[in-house]
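Hi support team,

I submitted a single chain yesterday and got back a structure, but I'm not sure I'm reading the token output correctly. Could someone confirm the output below corresponds to the sequence I sent? I've pasted both exactly as they appear in my results page.

Thanks,
R.
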Amino acid sequence: MSDTIEIQPISKPIVASIDVPGSKSYTNRALLIAALAEGQSELSGILFSDDTERMLDSLRKLGTYLEIDRLNHLVRVNGNSGRIPVSEANLDIGNSGTASRSLVCYTALGNGTYRFDGASPMRKSRPIADLLDALQQLGVLITSEQNNQRFPLVVSANGLDGGPVKLDASKSSQFLTALLMVAPVTKKGLQIELTDKLISQPYIDITLSIMNQFGVEVTNNDYCHFSVDGGQSYSSQSYEIEPDASSASYFFALAAITRGQVTVKHLDINSAQGDVQFVRVLEEMGCSVQCLSDGIQVTGGDSFKGINIDMNSISDTSLTLAAIAPFAKSQTTIRNIKHIRWQETDRLTAMVTELRKLGVTVVEFDDGLQIQPVDQIQPAEIETYNDHRVAMAFSLVGVRQAGVKIKDPRCVDKTFPTYFEILRQLGA
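Hi R., thanks for writing in. Yes, this is the structure output for that exact sequence:
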């Protein structure tokens, strides 16, 4: 694929039935928990992407035996019963938030020295300080090589006893996920008290669901205090990864803006993935939604109106909504997503900047943005900031308007390597 791709407009309604890849969130959590379990687990429906490859590579370097069947999207994991077989490893976590944060906690269980480094955003902007503070409360020695509580980091581990810990998860719910997943194999378990409001609660529901599937219960007191007994073992499982609801959002959005009909197969409206509820956002904007026996179907309506919405719990799809909002018949306001400023890039500023290139009137708030509808989008070359969601979101604009070019389209390899291939098959 070239350094820039031009999206071809589609003049007719898109009617399609689509398979999207497995969930990144489920894949990386299931891989880590399977590595902590006793016995061999078989994980099917695995997503193979840059983020999950970082997890697979790191688990291998940490002594976990993996059998990988890429053709059938299958991984068998030989669990290490809460132990880390190696005493030294050098891990490159790229720009993967789930891998980096969960693996830092995971290596705290070991006995040895484990060095982490990553891509520029991990070194410069993506937060981890609050997680490091929690681990240091638990007696873990972690050194930031630049003395700035960012990567590169060295974990000097001597086992993890557990106990009470206070955690600020207001910038990333992944901090809480990371602690929860290792909690049952510590000696004393963990009693986690949140000191600020938890963001992205559905991602914690995903974590709790997978832990439960592998045999561990978590006491959850109103998402403010979590308790996990120590001295437990995860049980090995045959576990199927469900489709990625965030990835599905782009195709549902295509149905909305082309007045088409798109079915995403094997996706369940009752999934713990918060982003599956993006279809309800589209429904409120004028689309019809049908929950089928084996998927979800969205049909674009004659009227596509704007919306005023709090997207804190489904913030990955806030970019999808922002990209299609100019095609609505009224103003759209997206609120309570300040935390997306600390993700792969400052996503709020990125969306505002690129929408303005397209001639869209946008107001940026500290925690959101307001988008006005436009009669005519201007052609533009979209900067993606090495952010997969920026690239996929703005590709939607190109489906409606000629002359939209996406720079660095390969950044979608992070979660959806075949995205632009599927888009081409649909006519774009």
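A quick pointer for reading it: The longest strand covers residues 111-117. Let us know if anything else looks off.

Best,
Support desk
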